[in-house]
C-alpha cells in the first residue's frame, strides 16, 4: 500500500495516510464502531472485545484519543444522555466518516496479513467457523 506524504501536523487525506494504526488506536476505533462512548466505557468495551487480553490504561487511552481527534478519526459528541444517566465530567466520542474508512482499511490490511501467515504455514487454518 502506498503511503502518502504529508506535512507534520497536517490533515490526512486518505486512510493510507495514517496506516498502520497502533493496536490501541485500532481497538478504540472498533469499540466506537457501534456507537458513541465515553472514555471509561471505551476501556471496558476494548477489554470485553478482547476477552481481557487488551487492557487500555487511562494514559494510553487519552493520549490515543487526543491523537485521534487531531487526525479526524473521532470527534467529541455534542449529544448527551439524560442527567440521570450521565456525569457532566464525561466526554463522549464517536467515529467520523474518515475514522470509519481508516478502521475498515486497517481491518483489511490485517486480514491480508493473516492470510499471508496462513499461506506461509505460520497460522493454521481454523477448524470450522469463518475462514479468513
Report what the structure shows:
By secondary structure, the protein is mainly alpha-helical. The chain contains four helices and three strands, in the order H-E-H-H-E-E-H. It has a domain of 81 residues: Winged helix-like DNA-binding domain superfamily/Winged helix DNA-binding domain (Arc Repressor Mutant, subunit A, Orthogonal Bundle), CATH 1.10.10. 43% of the residues lie in helices and 7% in strands. Strands 1-3-2 form a three-stranded antiparallel β-sheet. Helix 1 crosses helix 2. It is globular, with a radius of gyration of 17 Å.
Short description:
This protein is mostly helical and 132 residues long. It contains 4 helices and 3 strands; from the N terminus they run αβααββα.
Secondary structure topology:
Elements: H1 23-31, E1 37-38, H2 39-49, H3 58-71, E2 74-76, E3 92-95, H4 97-119
Antiparallel strand pairs: 1-3, 2-3
Helix pairs in contact: 1-2
Global outline:
globular
Question: What can be said about the biggest beta sheet?
Answer: 3 strands, antiparallel
The CATH architecture of the domain at 19-99 is Orthogonal Bundle
CATH superfamily of the domain at 19-99: Winged helix-like DNA-binding domain superfamily/Winged helix DNA-binding domain
Amino acid at each position: 500500500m502506498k503511503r502518502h506524504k504529508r506535512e507534520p501536523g497536517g490533515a490526512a487525506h486518505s486512510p493510507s495516510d495514517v496506516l498502520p494504526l497502533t493496536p490501541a488506536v485500532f481497538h478504540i476505533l472498533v469499540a466506537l464502531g457501534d456507537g458513541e462512548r465515553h472514555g471509561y466505557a471505551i476501556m471496558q468495551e476494548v477489554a470485553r472485545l478482547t476477552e481481557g487480553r487488551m487492557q487500555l490504561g487511562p494514559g494510553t487511552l487519552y493520549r490515543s484519543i487526543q491523537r485521534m481527534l487531531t487526525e479526524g478519526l473521532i470527534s467529541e459528541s455534542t449529544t448527551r444522555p439524560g442527567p440521570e444517566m450521565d456525569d457532566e465530567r464525561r466526554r463522549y466520542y464517536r467515529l467520523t466518516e474518515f475514522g470509519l474508512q481508516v478502521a475498515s482499511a486497517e481491518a483489511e490490511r490485517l486480514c491480508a496479513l493473516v492470510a499471508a501467515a496462513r499461506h506461509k504455514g505460520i497460522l493454521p487454518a481454523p477448524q470450522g467457523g469463518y475462514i479468513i
